[in-house]
Design goal:
about 280 residues, alpha+beta, 5-stranded mixed β-sheet, 3-stranded antiparallel β-sheet, 10 helices, isopentenyl-diphosphate delta-isomerase activity, signal, isopentenyl-diphosphate Delta-isomerase, steroid metabolism, lipid biosynthesis
């Protein structure tokens, strides 16, 4: 009798295991799950914005299909801020640009540089197709982020942001650093905007606007920049009209700036002090 009952129990046990296996949700091909105690039990992760993760509900964001060099840059540490641009911490470029985090309020510091030549034409770039956010879009001269480092955290007269701009102008456009010193950049104001690039990636930034007029040497990195050109006001207005007709794409921050302040500032390149506003943040 005991042996008979034991045989029945073994059969039931195997059947139960089979049922459990057949009811388990199948993961999509290539999906990787992060299986840790914090995920299984729903404890908060130690990133800049703490949020619940579940191994069953939230697979890792895969970057396997993205450009290797651009993926490496996702580990850079951006400066986290509140709505008043006060520093509150640091997090990776990757975490700062995930829409799932942006929707929870994650906000970081950024800058946009506008360089004009001696003919008062504006240098534009077209972002490379390798870029993770807004690939192939036309935009102002250079757009990026100060990093959470001592030299770029310094806030007096936005010197840290201007140092970051000098670094990125070299990295993206190959402009020699001695040609774009922080002292030559005019810090005008800040804008706060949010925009989705696609279903996964986006931007949520307080953007420092930096102007400069100088003839510079260019040697763009093709991994960063697909093309570049100098445009007059009339040429830029024609490009913006094409963008409205969906004939080309421009970045949302550049479109916002062009629709509001850009042309007034452009008309006053030699008298920009009247437009310097460091007290207010323009919400767009």
């Amino acid at each position: 009798m005991v042996l008979a009952m034991w045989a029945v129990l073994r059969v039931l046990s195997r059947g139960g295991a089979a049922v459990l296996k057949s009811n388990a949700p199948a993961a999509p091909p290539g999906t990787r799950f992060l299986c840790t105690a914090s995920n299984i039990y729903g404890r908060a992760t130690p990133s800049g914005v703490r949020h619940l993760q579940s191994a069953a509900r939230m697979p890792e964001i895969t970057t396997d299909h993205l450009d290797e060099k651009q993926v490496q840059l996702l580990s850079e540490m951006c400066i986290l801020i509140d709505d008043n641009d006060q520093k509150i911490g640091a997090d990776t470029k990757k975490n700062c640009h995930l829409n799932s985090n942006i929707d929870k309020g994650l906000l970081h510091r950024a800058f946009s540089v506008f360089i004009f030549n001696s003919e008062e034409k504006l240098l534009l770039q077209q972002r490379s197709d390798a870029k993770i956010t807004f690939p192939g879009c036309y935009t102002n001269t250079c757009c990026s982020h100060p990093l959470h480092t001592d030299s770029e955290l310094e806030e007096k007269e936005a010197i840290g942001v201007r140092r970051a701009a000098q670094r990125r102008l070299k990295a993206e456009l190959g402009i020699p650093m001695e040609q774009v010193t922080p002292e030559e950049m005019t810090y005008l104001t800040r804008i706060h905007y949010k925009a989705q690039s696609d279903g996964v990636w986006g931007e949520h930034e307080i953007d420092y606007i930096l102007f400069m007029q100088k003839d510079v040497d260019l040697s763009p990195d093709p991994n960063e920049i697909k093309s570049h050109c100098y445009v007059s006001k009339e040429e830029l207005k024609a490009m913006l009209q094409k963008a409205k007709r969906k004939e080309l794409e421009v970045t949302p921050w550049f479109s916002l700036i062009a629709d509001t302040f850009l042309f007034q500032w452009w008309d006053n390149l030699h008298n920009l002090k009247q437009f310097m506003d460091h007290a207010h943040i323009h919400r767009m």
